[in-house]
Amino acid sequence: MCIFCKIAAGEIPSTKVYEDEYCFAFKDINPQAPVHVLLIPKEHIESVNSINEENANVVCEVMKAIPKVASLIPELKDGYRVISNSGKNAGQTVFHLHFHILGGKEMNEHIV
Ligand code: 5GP
Ligand code: ZN
Predict the structure, then answer these.
(1) pLDDT, tens digit (0-9, with 9 covering 90-100), for 16-71
(2) Deepest in the core among 46, 54, 93, 106, taking most CB within 10 A?
């Protein structure tokens, strides 16, 4: 099992923010913003590049969970950024699909 599968299964401790049938969200261990949450599917999917017809339903559930997670965190009420690194050149280090939800400050440095 990969590290994020173990976190979703509760085998590795994490600070849980949100959970439902399909998703698990927890605080990033090395936060890059005042709020830095990782949202993952419970099912192991490697990255955005592995999204396909078979897992699209789960991915859709993860997308739908983003505003739910945001609504639980008052610091995100004025907005937040969602990032998913896919593959080596993007700097992906954990190969279990995850969405970084970042906020709690105005982020002026735009990559895109
Ligand atoms: P990536 O670089 O793959 O886009 O993001 C992986 C993220 O997972 C990093 O921001 C890193 O800090 C976080 N991370 C890695 N291992 C753990 C862990 O064991 N617990 C938590 N909470 N976050 C982790
Ligand atoms: Zn996994």
Answers:
(1) 999 999 999 999 999 999 999 999 999 999 999 999 999 999 999 999 999 999 99
(2) 46
Q: DSSP letters of 38-102?
A: EEEESS----GGG--TTTHHHHHHHHHHHHHHHHT-GGGTT-EEEE---SGGGT--S-S--EEEE
**Mutation pick for ligand 1 pocket among 12, 16, 27, 30 (CB with most ligand atoms within 8 Å):** 30
pTM of full prediction above 0.85 = yes
> What whole-number distance in Å separates Cα of residue 100 and Cα of residue 85?
9
